[in-house]
Amino acid sequence: MKGIVFTEFLDLVESKFGLETVQQIIDESELESKGIYTAVGTYKFTEMVSLLTNLSNLTKISKNDLLKVYGLHFFDALANNYGVILKSYKCPIKLLSSIEEHIHVQVRKLYPDAELPEFETIEQTDEKLILIYRSSRSLYTFAHGLMEKSFKHYGLDCDIKYELLKEDGTEVRFEILKK
Ligand code: HEM
Question: What SS3 state is found at 167?
Answer without folding.
Answer: coil
